[in-house]
Amino acid sequence: MKSEIYKINNNVERIKQGRSTLFLDGREFKLVTTKLKKDSYNIYYPYKDSEKVMLYTGKTPKIKLFKIYTVDKLRHQDILGSLFALNIDSCYFGDIVLYEGYFYVYIALELADFIKDNLTIIGKSKVSLEEVPLSLLQNYKRKYEEHEIITSSLRIDAIVSNIINSSRKIAIDRINNKEVIVNYEVANKNSYILKENDVFSIRKHGKYKFIGVVKNTKKDNYIIKYLKYI
Predict the structure, then answer these.
(1) Are 16 and 87 members of one domain?
(2) Sheet of 128-132, strand order
(3) Which domain holds residue 150?
């Protein structure tokens, strides 16, 4: 908790000093902007619908975009895990993007060289990073898989159990083990009711966006739509 407070306050101070923040996820963005005047900052989106953004006052933030090369097939969660294994905070890297068969990652300038030199293994695969122009993904639009399922409830435990094809008890265990994230926070209530555009992730299963109820069935169940991040 103390580290999170420090991170939020540090980003607020960076803006007050005329510097840009580091990368902010949706939750961090809300916490930082509540401490700032609305007209005191600009928002930098590395690409059109990027999830992680930066705030700035003067010059556009300096970041780098790296293309990840390997002969093996990579997964988003493995890249994320390997970045954390370097003992760096998530504020130093932005979105991880899959584009035309390759993964790309945005990195804050402060740690760009360190990450390029040290991110050499992802999972069991040897990788190398090559800097590419930011303009390469400027017009990139995130892709999703669209799904519809029938569920008896809009509670997070019910949705999770449907997605991972398990019992409600196993889904609750996943939540209790802090394996489910909702809107960038660890889910702490299995009774949480998902709302339109909630973003959630299930460890080892992926990241999702809840779109909402399509319609009700004759047996009073729900047909819901959600998107899975690719």
Answers:
(1) yes
(2) 93-99, 102-108, 63-69, 128-132
(3) 144-229
Same domain, 155 and 207: yes
In the chain, the number of structural domains is 2
pTM here is 0.79
CATH of the domain at 190: 3.10.290.10
CB 89 within 8 A of CB 140: no
pLDDT digit string (tens) for 63-102? 999 999 999 999 888 999 999 999 999 999 999 999 999 9
Clarify whether residues 65 and 169 are in a common domain. Answer: no
Count of alpha carbons within 13 angstroms of residue 198, beta-carbon side = 20
pLDDT at 145: 93
Range 163-168, long-range pairs (CB < 8 A, 24+ positions): 163/202, 163/205, 163/208, 163/226, 164/202, 164/205
Does residue 189 sit in the same domain as residue 166? yes
Nearest to 138 by CA among 60, 84, 75: 60
Check residue 100 and give its pLDDT: 92
Residue range 200-213: average pLDDT?
Answer: 92
Q: How confident is the model at residue 143 (pLDDT cuts 50, 70, 90)?
A: confident
The whole-chain average pLDDT of the chain stands at 93
Which CATH number do you get for residue 23?
3.30.70.330
Distance CA 17, CA 77 (A): 35
**Which residues lie below 8 Å from residue 216, measured CB to CB, with a gap of 6+?**
222, 223
Place of tokens 């779109």: 211
pLDDT given for residue 2 in this prediction = 61
* Same domain assignment for residues 136 and 189: no
